[in-house]
Amino acid sequence: QRREAPDEGPAAIRRAQVQAELEGEQRMAERTRRLRAQRERQLVAERESRARDEALLPTARRAAESLQAASAALVEQAAHAESALAADRADGEEVAVQLRTCAAREAELQASLRARGETVTAAEVAAQQARDRAAEAATELDELAGRLELAAEPADAALAREQREALAERVQRLARRRETLGPVNPLAEHEYAQARTYVEELEAQRHDLETAMRELQALIEKTDRQIREAFEVTLEAAARNFEEVVGQLFPGGRGRLRLVREQATPRPVLGGEPPPGEGPRSDEEEEEGPDPEDAELGVEIEMTPVGKSMKRLSLLSGGEKSLTALAFLFAIFLARPCPFYVLDEVEAALDDLNIDRFLTLLRRYSHGSQFIVVTHQKRTMEAADTLYGVSMSDDGVSRVISRRLPREEPAAAAGAA
Questions:
Q1: Residues in CB range of 206: below 8 A, 6 or more apart
Q2: What is the pTM of this model?
Q3: Which of 130, 180, 217, 288 minimizes the number of CB atoms within 10 Å of its CB?
């Protein structure tokens, strides 16, 4: 077993102890060798340091000698400085004595300056008071001079007692008179300024209104001129058309439109006699036109059927009145054409001959306008292109019916309803 297990048993334990002690001794020997080598290195370094110190010893001796010489020089300089410092202290004390003397002198001068300044201030105050009294006296003198209406000049000598009493009495009298005037309005100046500003604003507004009135008057005049020009052009065209239409409705007759002015007194009516107290107008007066002082412009219709003299409109027959009205309306229509014209039973008072003339007039001008005629005349219905009527059946319900009439000529007259 010992051969098979050599590391077991007391021998093995002892061997391990001896091995451990051997290793400890080896470590101690190694440490000792290291310490010896370190000590040797220190001894070498000390020997080298001692050699260097021995080499530096002469230099150190020389430096010490130099330091001793410098110390002696410094001691000598310190002695000189002490002596100079003592002298400076003596001089400083002397300067301090002089400064104290100067301070005392300065205090005396400051006290004297304050006293003199107070004296000067008192003198200036007295002078200012004297100037104020002089100004008040001058103001009072000017006020008294203004009240008394005298020159503001001081007299060479004082007034006599009687004169002073008279002036005092006058002053009292004027004071009483001022009291009787009532209290003074302190806002009068401000109110005057406001009133003046208001008046200036009114003046500016008046100027603007006058300018606007002038512009408006110019615009009115321009508008009136344009109205007159348009009226004259329209009246001229309507007069030409009226003469032409009258020639168609009244073959052989004549008619014209004339511009007249409405007067306060009655005027002769369309071919009638002048009213009582007014003579007939001459041909020159008729050609000259209306009186410029008359009130308003108007259009007078002159109508003379064939074989008749000029008559009043009120004296014409119903058919002639209707034809005259149609002639006037067609004259206006031709002067200002429209696409549509509505005629409501305008031929009701016409006979067959005049209806034919009316239908001829419609056919002539139907190429540029459409005529819608409300009629009960059979001849007018026959001349229409299209008929529109309202019929009521037995059940009492009204309905609108229409019928287009054949035309031999393409230019048909008008539609009747």
A1: none
A2: 0.41
A3: 180
